[in-house]
Amino acid sequence: MSKNTPLVAGNWKMNGQREQALELGKLAEGLDKNPVEGVDVMICPPTTLIMPFSELMKGGKVAIGAQDCHTLVSGANTGDISAEMLADAGATAIIVGHSERRADHSESDALINEKAQASWRAGLVAIICVGETNGQRQYGLTLDVVRRQLKNAVPDGATAKNTVIAYEPVWAIGSGLTPTVEDVDKVHNDIRKVLVERFGDSEGGGMRLLYGGSVKASNAKELMAVENVDGALVGGASLKADDFLGIITSYKS
Ligand code: PGA
């Protein structure tokens, strides 16, 4: 079991309009009725919903995060949003380097590194995503790929407070497939080792390592029980409050 306070974060991706506040409300109500102590809960909705959602959740148990940011504070960057704007809207964290952004927007580790620093500059937590593709996995390159991503995408200055790492095998995202518990254990142990070597016992050991990729209520318990898994980054199963609550309650003893 994780020695760090687990974080279960939902990534809504490009899903949801204002009416989706109903699911957020159900989630908050579920957590009030049936509290799961010692677990942090977050929803990262599309940018348009960050402000209304953070107002709705003010003082409650569900934190609101963002899915991406620009590296600069402000400027001539049509269509982009800065970390400071997201903080102003009420976000407390930003997912950076999700594999969909790496693939669809050609985001490099160097850019992700800058985005993580931008998140910190705005006082927000950076949730930095890493993970191998299916091809890389088949060639036995998982640990090499993840190590390279950690080295280049995680900035110097990362601490247990300002950074969360999400290991998300690309082939497991949205596919219904998950690595075996043994594979997750192996990768998370390796990530922990790399982080402790680079940032020391307290910061590297205290940084939360989330597993992401087809997490659902039915597999959450075994995945969350892995030693260096400190929570989950959840896509599809975070859109419905009941499904997401099922994942969170896997932490109930
Ligand atoms: P999934 O997505 O849970 O739908 O597989 C995870 C993610 O992309 O963060």
Describe the protein.
- By secondary structure, the chain is of the alpha/beta class.
- The chain has a single domain, classed as TIM Barrel (Alpha-Beta Barrel).
- 42% of the residues lie in helices and 15% in strands.
- It contains ten helices and eight strands.
- The protein has helices spanning 21-33, 50-56, 83-89, 99-104, 109-121, 134-138, 142-153, 181-206, 217-224, 241-248, and strands at residues 7-11, 40-44, 62-66, 93-96, 125-130, 163-167, 208-212, 231-234.
- The protein has an eight-stranded parallel barrel, surrounded by eight helices.
- Helix 8 (181-206) links the parallel strand 6 (163-167) and strand 7.
- Helix 1 packs parallel to helix 10.
- The longest helix is centred in the C-terminal third of the chain and has 26 residues, at 181-206.
- The model has no long low-confidence stretch (mean pLDDT 97).
- The structure holds 2-phosphoglycolic acid.
- 2-phosphoglycolic acid binds next to strand 8.
Q: Estimate percent helicity.
A: 40-55%
Q: Identify the overall geometry.
A: globular
**Residue-averaged pLDDT, rounded?**
97
- Annotated CATH topology: TIM Barrel
What's the name of the CATH homologous superfamily? Aldolase class I
For the sheet with most strands, the description reads: 8 strands, parallel, barrel
Reading the helices and strands in chain order gives EHEHEHEHHEHHEHEHEH
**Strand-pairing-aware structural class:** alpha/beta
**Domains counted in the coordinates: how many?**
1
> So how many helices?
10
